[in-house]
Amino acid sequence: MTPSTSQEAPAVQIPIKRMFTTAGEGPYHNIEWERRTARIGQADNPRFEQRNVEVPSFWSQNATDIVASKYFAYGADDPRREDSVRTLIDRIVTKLADEGMAAGYFGSADREIFLDELRYIMVHQLAAFNSPVQFNIGVEGVPQVASACFILSVEDSIKGIGQWYMDEMEIFKSGSGAGANLSKLRGSSETLSRGGVSSGPVSFMRGADASAGTIQSGGRTRRAAKLVRLDVDHPDIEEFIVCKVREEERIRALAAAGITIGIGSEAGERELAEATAYQNANQSVGLSDDFMAAVERDADWDLLERQTGNVAKTVKARDIMNMIAESAWSCADPGVQFDTIINDWHTTPAQGPITASNPCSEYLSNDDSACNLSSVNLLKFLNEDGSFDTDGFRQTVAIMFLGQEITLAFADFPTRKIGKNTRALRQIGLGYANLGALLMAKGQPYDSEDGRETAAAITALLTGQSYLTSTAIAERMGAFDYYKENADSVQRVLGKHKAAADALAVGRSSNSQTVREAKKVWTEVLEEAAEHGVRNAQATVLAPTGTISFLMDCDTTGIEPDLSLIKHKTLVGGGTMAIINQIVPEALKRLGYDTTQVSEIMDYLEEDVDGSMRGHLVGAPHISEEHVHVFDCAMGAQTIAHMGHVNMMAAVQPFLSGAISKTVNLPPTATPADIAEVYQRGWELGLKALAVYRDGSKNSQPLATSKGPSGSESEDEARATSLLGDGLLRGERRRVAREPAVASVNFNIGQVGGYIHVRLFDDGTPGAVFVDVGQAGSTLHGFIRAWAITMSLGLQYGLPLDTLVSKLAWTQFEPQGITDDPDIRTARSIVDYAIRWMAARFLDLDELDRGSLGLQPLDSTDSDEVVQVEAAIPGGEIIQRRKVVAQTRKITPQGVIRTINTAEICPNCGAQAMVRTGSCMTCSVCGENSGCG
User: Fold this and answer.
1) Long-range contacts: 718-721, Cβ < 8 Å, 24+?
2) Is 362 part of the annotated catalytic residue set?
3) How many CB atoms lie within 10 A of CB 412?
4) What is the pTM of this model?
5) Distance between CA atoms of 760 and 886, rounded to whole angstroms?
6) Rounded Cα distance, 818 and 816, in Å
7) Catalytic residue (choose from 130, 181, 282, 358)
8) Ranges of H-type helices in 257-369
């Protein structure tokens, strides 16, 4: 169908209606505007500053700083420099409207409606386009790049590899990221036509990584974002899996040799890049159903030569999976992409299979193609009664989708091949942000059936409305170029989406309207697509939404739960402060707590603990155990179990054209077996891609042991020293006597019993801990023994006991329950009981707040309690000693748990505020993003 270029709308129109605005009033009606200073960094030495920035009064200072520093067009010395959110929005929206009208998407009347509705959506933070749209579209003299995500092809030749390097450079220069599958490249044992053997893909990865490390993405401070994938049957798959782990081992070896590598600074990042390889790319292994079945059977698996297809090596499939899990445990890479599942949902197989993804793994499509992203702010559609505003959501989706489609009519692309394929297939990546905040506000735990049902219903409606809009555009503008040869595949995949929507339950009152709307929309999609086709081969993904989520003042990014209940926000005068997530009181009210109860719960949440706000609701007054889980987060004292992340992804995956950029968070104590289980379960649940992150696997630094003059190490002289270049002594070991006094107790927690022996230094303070529980050889026995050894070393190197108590009290895992200790009535774990028992006996009782540790109050006659200490031989004579007080700092009596800040340092603003957003990192202060934006 030939598009119309008439200024007036022809008979066939794309449905564009007014919902948020009134004709003649304008989209900025009733908005109060104010002027602020946007600043990144401290007031006396800012990294960025712009005064008199005009923003809506309801935008936060954080959003103000991000929009001015990242998205305002033109340089500071350019008279065209933008200084108002209105100017930014008008620049983007006007360009889209003008190009849309010129291309024939609508006439003049519909143009005005589109202008007003999109302006309203953007200024009220209902949705946002990805970063390239924000800083490119409508800017004079700048390529009109609208896409953030690219997939490249790599051919098995020097010319093909060189082209891959060049294409990546062009993409990184524009501020975007790219992924590629290297499986066509011959393995390192395969011969070349002129003799010799190939270098193999891992070798060429090193060159590409070095190239990426020298190009700051878009001329900005972040490094380029990229992904490399290798299929599991490639001859070099084992080398690929472990290449990053080997680099980490090299870092440790360099550190042990006294070569310092700075962390968290620009110079340090360069040193790290120069000293190590493969650090700029996310890595992923392509896993087929055949391979996963072989893992289940513990069967053999053949690695195949690329040129001949002959078997290069036969291995155990389970050994490969274990290798993947062990590497991911160590350094968070590689992730996995389930190749068979991905291609079962492929709408355009006539153009070839899907072999790779963008750097964050949400965009999965044909090689040499691109996808522009946008995200809807879900919390904006929560009604007062807890229901979801489906009408406003559908309108926002339709307008944003149309805007993204229009960019394909005029946008620039880094290579001719990418431009040709993308205009032919017209892939769009509409998604959402703030799901975690929406669920919390609704009073639904992230890891719950209610939470998953809400997410599934919204995602079904998102993709259904997107494709319904696509059919309407197709009726006017025609289906995408290759629709005819892919029509059966498109209809089959749309049918799979509809079947998943039909399976949604309508019973839940808060989701019933959303589910009904989703079912209705999907019925319409199949009817309209059968008649008109679809304009877009793909419609939706769930991206990490790092920077734009902060632009929209979201509390959570993408599909992620809340990172923690403490947020870092920028102050107008510079610097940052920690504030409580204000969704918490709203959620508490919706859960039925009265004003007084909410106030007391919030006081508990904000109470100072060891110099910081407590930041969790474990042990809070009034709140029930069931409701505590509504406020579970990805990190901190209330942590969502790793399978909770996997199950949430599985709930929404059937409703997405692409995949989900999300990292499954695991605790530091997780094992490689836990990671293998996550990958296995993800495949069973039908996920397309999966990545994990074990807390601490990227942030911990090794310790070195100083040597004596001869180079030999004496145990008496062993010292833990810093490898951060500051030369500071980190501790000197203090020995426990050969036959010390011992404090001991027998305990029972539920049905599990054991005993604790604490060996004392000569001054009566604790120096070594022994805990015996569980059967020898069991996981529980081994874990508790390892914990006790770690505790002992900490005490001997001078760690204050009250610090250890503040970190370990209330640690929760099985076994837990009622104890036989009159002071400690219940324990959440053996570690919890042991550390609180030690606190009660070895900390200064004059300063210790027993209530904060859940200890029974002392009688007044006990204030000068004398601790009885058992003799060195168990069962020996009980002797009287003076009061025992452990080495301590100033004790903070208010509480015991503090969330440790493990965030990385932002290379842009210098704040220690880089948090995970999917597979990427985003600064919660300035919005700096390490991925696709």
Assistant:
1) 720/797
2) yes
3) 13
4) 0.78
5) 10
6) 7
7) 358
8) 266-275, 289-297, 317-331, 339-344
